[in-house]
Amino acid sequence: MKSSAWIEKSDKYIMRTYGRFPLVPVRGEGCYLWDADGKKYLDFLAGVAVNNLGHCHPAVTAALAKQAGELIHCSNYYQIPQQIELAELLCGLSFADKAFFCNSGAEANEAAIKLARKYSREKYGTDRFEIITALASFHGRTMATVSATGQEKVQKFFDPLLHGFRHVPFNDAASLAAAVSPCTCAVMLEPIQGEGGVVVPDAGYLQAVREICNEHNLILIFDEVQVGMGRTGKMFAHEHFGITPDIMTLAKALAGGAPIGAMLATDELAGAFTPGTHGSTFGGNPLVCAAGIATVRAIMEEGILNRTCEMGEYLVGEFEALQQKFPAIKEVRGIGLMIGVELNIAGADIVKKALERGLLLNCAQEKVLRFVPPLIVGKKEADEMLKIFTGILEEL
Length: 396
What we know:
By secondary structure, the chain is of the alpha/beta class. It has helices at 3-13, 46-49, 58-68, 81-93, 105-124, 143-148, 152-155, 173-179, 205-216, 267-270, 286-301, 304-325, 348-356, 379-395; strands spanning 25-29, 32-35, 40-43, 98-102, 130-134, 165-168, 184-189, 219-223, 247-250, 261-265, 329-335, 338-343, 359-360, 362-364, 368-371.
């Protein structure tokens, strides 16, 4: 079926919760997608930082195929070997002692919110329930995570929001400290804001946040849904800043494209989740956990982290060179392959022109082009992207 026919059906049957582009992907390999008409696209969006190993990585597809022939799903009333193995891998790579699995980043953040509140209620009493989050943050689309998100455009139409969240400017430790009250139980932050425009905090900010949490016995939650799993050149973005949280959430790239979320925590906090207090029917089923195991092993064994650092440095350098040449570029920022190019103009037209030329990009906060390619990207693909991007800038 041609792309036009699929788009016509989509308009008839799919709810319009996205402003979808006229692209119908039907096949992917590495850094490339092909649409229903056979056109090839260079993917520098990677499913919004999901396909960190590229499309159809051999180890991930093999793990999915093998597991699909053995056992796809069973109840979490039983012990699931793949889930146990993935939890062991993630805890071994992080500060955490225990893992909870779900299906998405929003669900992982819901779990973190519930765990923080339940732990605090049991230890400090019912008055301690507020969570401080950041303006311009993004934590999900459920009612609790919309309430936690610091963007009015995400929250409008859904009043009344869940109470108990305070929003303060990101990268401003003084404002955060001033927001702490006797009701505060936790602080929830993205170590690097993604939907907020690829905002990297100043040196010392997250350290100051950790100290504030220590001083007031607050739980520190890091939302690493977008920036975790190697995206910044380290397995978890907070490692760049020399501190650890008490709770961390993961999703997106955790299983190479299969739908999974995870909430990791220390033993002390994890103990607050007792049987019946939280759950997820599909969370951590054998199929997605097999994909997760293959993904984590590939990141660790295939030199992905070093490659991410090297290609990130190369691309930032090239973007900074373009900034000197084109006044449309205001700022270049990022770590690893989490790169934002802030413009002096709206970015939507550039994204559209890139799509027409076979390049997939994304724009956040109206003026920040977000470059989050697969972490397997090489200089060949990077130069191909730069040629297209430069051509668009020249036209502007």
